[in-house]
Design goal:
Length: 153
């Protein structure tokens, strides 16, 4: 019982702070408060475990930089992927442009059969494949009404 009541009191005080005080604080105040608490936690940890750090080898000191190395690799990887997506050389990263002619024909046939089953006709102004004109076909006002009524919307 002697461990239960202080823990329960700490939980209630923390809940009051979290639900009543913290939502009223602005983002800059919370950011500064979190940085101050992080700095205090690092300082407290270093003073408490200074002997262990003093006797550690030089390789173990490099483990402090592991998070920065992983973060740097993540940023470099994300930038490389973005450059791959938006580069003008080579094949496009968009799946529709990487289709073979037989796959494109299959997609066009499927979309045409779907459009005809919904009662939509291919407008004369739309020339070219269905993949190129799909947005125009589905967004005309008459086709929107047809699709909505057929789907029960």
């Amino acid at each position: 019982m002697e461990f239960f009541l202080p823990g329960l009191a700490a939980l209630l005080i923390a809940a009051l702070l979290i639900f009543l005080v913290l939502p009223r604080l602005g983002a800059p105040v919370l950011a500064i408060l979190s940085l101050v608490l992080l700095a205090y936690g690092v300082w407290s940890h270093m003073t408490l475990f200074s002997a262990e750090y003093r006797y550690s080898t030089w390789q173990q000191r490099l483990s402090g930089y592991a998070s920065f190395i992983v973060l740097g690799a993540l940023i470099v990887g994300a930038l490389g992927y973005l450059m791959y997506i938006f580069s003008t050389q080579g094949s496009s990263a968009l799946p529709a442009s990487n289709l073979t002619p037989t796959q494109t024909a299959a997609v066009n046939n499927t979309v045409n059969s779907m459009a005809s089953s919904l009662g939509m006709s291919n407008n004369k102004k739309n020339s070219g494949s269905v993949l190129e004109n799909l947005g125009g076909i589905l967004n005309t006002p008459s086709n929107k009404k047809n699709i909505s009524s057929k789907l029960g919307l």
